[in-house]
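Hello again, I could really use a second opinion on something today. For a while now I've been wondering how a particular protein folds. Please have a think about how the structure follows from the sequence. Here's the protein in full, and shout if anything looks odd to you:

***
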Amino acid sequence: MDRTILHCDLNGFYASVELRDKPELQNKPVAVCGDPESRHGIILAKNEAAKKFQVKTAETIWQARRKCPDLILLPAHHDQYRLWSGRVNAIYERYTDLVEPFGIDESWLDVTGSMHLFGGEGRAIADQLRRVVKEETGLTISVGVSFNKVFAKLGSDMKKPDATTVISRSDVPAKVWPLPVTDLLFVGRASAKVLSRYGIHTIGDLAAFGRDGLERLLGKQGGQLYEYAAGLEHSPVTRAGETPPPKSVGNGITFRRNLVGWEDIHTGVALLSDSVAARLRKHAMKCTTVQVTIRDPNFKDICRQKRLEAPSCTARDIGGAALELIRASWDPRAPIRALTITGQHLLPEGEAGEQLDLFSAGASPRREKREQLERAVDGIRGKYGKTAIRSAVTMGEDIDHPAGHAGSIPPPGGAGRD
């Protein structure tokens, strides 16, 4: 028997929270943004009135204001977003204990076992949830109902705001397969560009291409995308309170000024690799691949990745791989506006053994000592603060923002695309 999975998506979440106590702005174009005076000045969320002007999340403030000169900008209050996210998820937990957050504003619910208590069908529960959330919080949600997590999320994206969309197995050919391939979870611009070269433009094209062909094009990710498109995805919804392990750990900085030259680049890489490595250790994970994304002042990105010799959670290994990628693909005289380093293809520490040969017998002890040293630094920072110990190359740097970048809440819905 098919499961009944709901994907609940809070509509314009940041903006909706900000407007709860500002009813006079409800029908005016409003956006929540980063600091307008800094290079972090991007749109984090917008209301329905701003959407009519084609204002988009993650675009710069000046781009948004060019489309909508009367756009009202509000500062972000992340503590309030966490508060209301928790309250909404508590409502979801009245209907099932299988509630898995996906970012701060989205959650999957598996109501298969409790459906008989709340109307007997997914649509009835979705409609009831929409009503209850609106009555108790003043916020609205869009809900997708389907037999797996991927199509439930696809459904919640189809109609907004405050709507329910059901995708049954029989609906897939007519409702899902004609959609653009970029509507599918985890198909971003980079993957779509590769797929388009082979005539894959819709989700149906992706399903028809077959697993073997997609794995030849995209590796393991290709097989996963085939399962998503064909309706074969079957991952469970995690029980409420049980956080699933991350699939990647990354950090990015939009620098206070452009990076130019290797000294600047080394400093930027040191800041990011230190943060990524510390977060990997916090999750008890190691990465096997390092990805670097470089953005120039014209907002053009290049993305490169490299497999590590052995799984690692140290800043030295991650930073070293990142620098190799940058040296191979970037002219140091060209300015860099923003840089992101991501550890990918993660393994739990206990499973991250390494295969040694006769010529690398000394590598593992050295790596182990480095790991122990960085864990000791984690302990000191945990006791005395994050700035208690810093890499020498980052001392006195003038490229990062005083408030820092690590751990900030990303724009809602930003967790899923490459």
